[in-house]
What we know:
By secondary structure, the chain is mostly helical. It contains one helix and no strands. The protein has one helix at 2-89.
Amino acid sequence: MDNQVEAVETELSVMDKLSKKVNSVIEQHKAITAENENLKNEIVSLKEEIETLKNEIAQKNEKIEALVEDNEMKELELEDIVSKIESILG
């Protein structure tokens, strides 16, 4: 009878240890899942931020192109004025 009790106690001890390990793994899994979800949300946020920055860059590039075009026109106007002044002066 003592052997049976000892065997049952050993089995219960093993089951208790396994149960604790399983619970530990479950908690680790929950933590990893939560971290993965946080990372997914961060990735989505970063993608949105990248898209916003791309749009801002595109707008600034358009402004730069417009300024370059405006400067080129002003340069032509100045060249025309200089040419007229030179022709007036002789």
